[in-house]
Specification:
- The chain starts with 5 loop residues before the first helix and ends in a 7-residue tail after the last strand.
- The protein has 594 residues and is α+β, with helices and mostly antiparallel strands.
- The chain has a five-stranded antiparallel sheet. Strands 7-6-10-9-8 form a five-stranded antiparallel sheet, with helices on both faces. Strands 12-14-15-17-16 form a five-stranded mixed sheet, with helices on one face.
- Helix 14 runs antiparallel to helix 16.
């Protein structure tokens, strides 16, 4: 149902009240006017009757009916009054409207009966003679305490009604004029009241739409003015509070968004209240559509749902390591606690997820490193110690055995020295990486390629492998020559050792797509795909027996990786078992000079 405007409600109310009041007053006035007019008529009839009584006394005493009729006619015509004189026996002596001989006995008329009883008789009724409504007033005429006649005066009621209607018409016209003026005044007053309210309504709509800076005009009315001031004050307070809430929300959202840890909050019905970007990424859900949905729909991992259940149960916080089986397995350190309101009542739970996959992996690498380095150092040390003890036990007296044992000790010492040198070199590179920028200057790339080939030429000749260098003689780049030479030497050494006699190892450099790329490609045995992700870990070997036999320390590729990182680049590998491997050092665009 359509709501009515306050203006018309007020206007119609005022108009109805005014009309009702006018009608009530008009009706009451009409009744009172008629009553007052009838009273006035009765008084006049009484006065006229007394005048007639005084004037006809002599005629009554003389029983001069002619004079009595003549006087009654003159007086009745003058005063527009019907005059009737009635004898005590009810016989009409004279009448100004009708011949007495034609009139019936009036002794049974109520007003005559009252007059004959000595009172003033008054009655309004239909005249049987004139067939019209008349109002009668009769008084007794006394002589010596004896009623000798009754004088009755009367007037037609129609004359009274016409006079009353004339007055009522004037009252109605005046009332109509008053109603018109009242309706105009009501409209003015209604507009005066409703216009400020309409303005305040529009202002409230602007407040509701968020325009809290709008200043609502203050009406002159004390009540409406106070309301407008209160609304303006409320808008200012709301603006301040909303601003504070928005600022706090933005700060909270900024904190949650910038957190590396995932934060997930659920209510007591297990519906998602909030989650940050990290949580959405870890749980592999859409951040926008997840809010409001049951957590069992978005958290497909059973361990996550179990942790939420335990956190919702209340009590102390819970912790657990969760395994997420996505494309790459991730390990999450999860902590859960109940959300409490001001009264300490549980209203939900909050879960903090921290991706510790890399930490756990590094811990595993550290354990493997400790075990590997212990094993790598233990082997040559044990060999040296064993052969020295053999020599001390008398083997040194046999020159041939002594020389053989000493050569083995020397070889193991060299191996031990190589391991220690590689560890020191790796530690030095790691210590400088990200802390002290290595010195890089523009150099001709071909020079460092040729130097790396020279470092491994003896091993290549021994194994019958040819190293082919492919590089533009004018190509220059910014790098640290000793470090890059060491990295290329390690790659060439591996490529030569794992290549068959008569094969080639290609060493190339180029500037491609804004990147400086140096590649070492061999035609060796290749590397299975399952080993590629761990290939650059310390002491990680694909073929441990062959690697040790070839004299490798297991640290060469780790050194290459850190040298590339020190230059702001990376190392990539592409290998196919049985067809060979290609290792590429990719340096950023800033390194390229041409």
């Amino acid at each position: 149902m359509r709501a009515k405007r306050l203006l018309w409600q007020l206007y119609l109310s005022y108009l109805l009240i005014t009309l009702a009041a006018l009608l009530a007053i008009g009706g009451f006035a009409s009744v009172e006017i008629r009553r007052f007019y009838l009273q006035s008529v009765n008084k006049n009839l009484h006065i006229r009757a007394r005048l007639v009584e005084q004037q006809i006394g002599a005629s009554l005493d003389a029983t001069d009916i002619v004079k009595l009729q003549a006087f009654s006619n003159r007086f009745g015509e003058t005063t527009s009054t019907r005059i009737t004189v009635i004898a005590p026996d009810g016989k009409v002596l004279c009448d100004t409207e009708q011949s007495p001989s034609e009139m019936e006995n009036h002794g049974n008329r109520q007003e005559v009966i009252s007059a004959l009883a000595g009172d003033v008789g008054q009655q309004t009724r239909l005249s049987s003679t004139l067939r019209d409504q008349l109002t009668y007033l009769a008084i007794p005429v006394e002589r010596a305490s004896r009623i000798i006649a009754v004088v009755r005066t009367s007037v037609h009621v129609t004359e009274v009604d016409e006079a009353v209607r004339s007055v009522q018409l004037q009252v109605a016209v005046g009332g109509l004029l008053i109603a018109v003026l009242a309706s105009l005044l009501s409209l003015f007053v209604s507009r005066r009241i409703s216009r400020p309210l309409e303005t305040m309504r529009r202002g409230a709509e602007r407040f509701a739409a968020g325009d809290l800076s709008y200043e609502m005009p203050v009406p002159k009315s004390a009540e409406l003015g106070g309301l407008a001031v209160s609304l303006n004050k409320m808008a200012r307070q709301l603006e301040e509070r909303i601003g504070t809430i928005v600022q706090q929300r933005n700060e909270r959202e900024a904190v949650l968004t910038s957190m590396a840890e995932g934060v997930l909050a659920v209510d007591s019905e297990r519906k998602v209240l909030n989650l940050n970007r990290a949580a959405a990424r870890l749980l592999d859900v859409d951040e926008q559509t997840a809010v409001g949905r049951p957590v069992d729909e978005i958290a497909r991992n059973a361990d996550v749902r179990q942790l939420i259940t335990e956190a919702l149960a209340g009590g102390e916080s819970v912790e657990a390591d969760l395994m997420l089986g996505t494309e790459t397995e991730r390990i999450l350190a999860a902590k859960g606690a109940a959300l409490l309101d001001q009264d300490g009542k549980s209203i939900g739970a909050v879960i903090v997820l921290d991706d510790v996959t890399q930490v756990r992996r590094l811990e595993s690498i550290r354990r493997d490193f400790v075990a590997n380095v212990s094993h790598e150092l233990k082997t040559p040390i044990a060999a040296i110690k064993g052969f020295v003890e053999t020599l001390l036990d008398g083997a040194m007296d046999d020159r041939q055995d002594a020389l053989r044992f000493l050569k083995i000790v020397a070889k193991q010492s060299d191996r031990l020295s190589a391991i220690i040198e590689d560890l020191l070199s790796l530690a030095k590179i790691e210590q400088a990486e990200g802390v002290v920028a290595i010195e890089m200057e523009p150099h001709r790339v071909l020079d460092v390629l040729e130097a790396a080939r020279g470092d491994t030429s003896a091993v290549a000749e021994e194994r019958g492998v040819e190293i082919v260098v492919e590089c533009d003689a004018e190509l220059t780049a910014r790098f640290n020559p000793p470090l890059l030479e060491q990295a290329l030497a390690n790659l060439l050494d591996n490529a030569v050792k794992y290549s068959e006699a008569g094969s080639r190892v290609h060493l190339s450099a180029e500037n491609r797509d804004g990147q400086f790329i140096i590649a070492v490609a061999d035609q060796g045995c290749g590397i299975p795909a399952e080993h590629l992700s761990r290939l650059f870990e310390r002491f990680y070997r694909v073929d441990k027996a062959r690697s040790r036999k070839l004299g490798g320390t297991g640290l060469g590729l780790a050194i290459v990786k850190h040298i590339a990182a020190a230059h702001g680049g990376r190392v990539e590998v592409d290998s196919t078992p049985g067809r060979g491997s290609r290792f590429s050092i990719v340096l950023p665009q800033s390194a390229a000079e041409r």
